[in-house]
Amino acid sequence: MSRQAYRAALVHMLDDPCRAPAAEACAYHTDGLLVVEDGHVAAFGAYEDLAPALPAGTPVEALSGRLITPGFVDAHTHYPQTDVIAAWGSQLLGWLNNHTFPAEQAFADRAHADEAAGFFLDQLLRNGATTALVFCTVHKTSVEALFDAALARNMRLIAGKVLMDRNAPPALCDTVETGRADTEALIRAWRGRGRLGYAVTPRFAVTSSEAQLAMAGEVAAAHPDVLVHTHMSENLDEVARVGELFPGHRDYLDVYQRFGLLTDRSVFAHCVHTSEDALRRMVGAGAAAAFCPSSNLLLGSGLFSLRQACACGVTVGLGTDVGAGSSFSLLHMMGEAYKVGQLRGEGLDPLHAFYLATLAGARALKLDDKVGNLAPGKEADFLVLDLAATPLLARRMAAAKTLADKLFVLSILADDRVVERAYLAGALAHARDGDL
Ligand code: GUN
Ligand code: FE
């Protein structure tokens, strides 16, 4: 058995801070001890409480000035879109046609997909994302490239082949039958390997026929261990287009519901223009939303109301939505979510933002029995954050008194330099300073 302990400040969330009293929702130890045994968390607590019981001979690494957190969960992103980060000039539907669809066509080539997958996963790790729910492209091989790269890194990743049979370039369209066959084959080939999971991934209602959405619902129903991952109500032109393509439905969610895609394993990215009625139907079904503030601001999609979603009881994770979103950093997304909250007059408590980036994301992806915090028994995916990574950060951090102050400073000033190390299942997977 391997056992290693780390002494540093520690923080993680145990519950939703909007629903549980702060003392129960969050555990914070300024002098803490994290004990890792065989890739899992064995203990998390105050150093003075845990040190006396530590088995003799356990190595303890002292990491002063550092904050250990759980790895972040990116609840919605696209690995083939790294190269459209910072593409400007249009909103969603124009951006897809002008930038995204051309970039995705390159993933028919396995070598391109391999290179892009490796770069993408390394970016996740250097920014502290240890778990993610990821769109691939319509090409089966794009999923194989990403899963191979994730398996090699032992990352906890859920991904799927995009289903798209209309309103997209012919080179990016499958059919009902090839979409079904490829999806079934991928589920069979990858289920249970490493820390991988599959998500049935119709892109959005605009690019799938009724028959394809029905097929996606059938495949999801046949495989209770897979998620459903799609976009919903991101942009007003998109919502109007869905109304034209699917007349007679109560709303956008109703389209997904009719085809069996509203499930307790569904993650709907965006939900910016989703009514309270639809949010409540999501709660009734056990579906989750992914809030993607950077993307929503850059594409001008709108301002998601986290307050409304929380009041309705929706599980909300935080997504980078690369490449509409411009950063791989969930810390940065916490800051962007705060700015959206400010524009809505809602604000956002830093502890709530931290919950979104960790445990809430794990809950949205139905992985909270495995990751999302550092409770004993969970997989030891954690980060060592350097709170003095830049001169400005060090200066502002020195004046930050409370945990909320510190998390807020990180959310506004952090980038990948803050992530000194990232561990996956107890093993060092990224070292900022190159001592991997
Ligand atoms: N809606 C449908 N496809 C996409 C996509 O690739 N990115 C975003 N942000 N929204 C979408
Ligand atoms: Fe997206």
From TrEMBL:
It comes from Phenylobacterium hankyongense. GO terms for cellular component: cytosol. Its cofactor is Zn(2+). The lineage of its organism: Bacteria, Pseudomonadati, Pseudomonadota, Alphaproteobacteria, Caulobacterales. Its EC number is 3.5.4.3. Pathway: Purine metabolism; guanine degradation; xanthine from guanine: step 1/1. GO terms for biological process: guanine catabolic process. It is an enzyme of class 3 (hydrolase). Catalyzes the hydrolytic deamination of guanine, producing xanthine and ammonia. It catalyses: guanine + H2O + H(+) = xanthine + NH4(+). Binds 1 zinc ion per subunit. Belongs to the metallo-dependent hydrolases superfamily. ATZ/TRZ family. Residues 68-408 form the Amidohydrolase-related domain. InterPro entries: Amidohydro-rel, Guanine_deaminase, Metal-dep_hydrolase_composite, Metal_Hydrolase, Metallo-dep_hydrolases. Gene3D superfamilies: Metal-dependent hydrolases, Urease, subunit C, domain 1. Keywords: Hydrolase, Metal-binding, Zinc. One of its GO terms (molecular function) is zinc ion binding. It holds the Pfam family Amidohydro_1. This is Guanine deaminase.
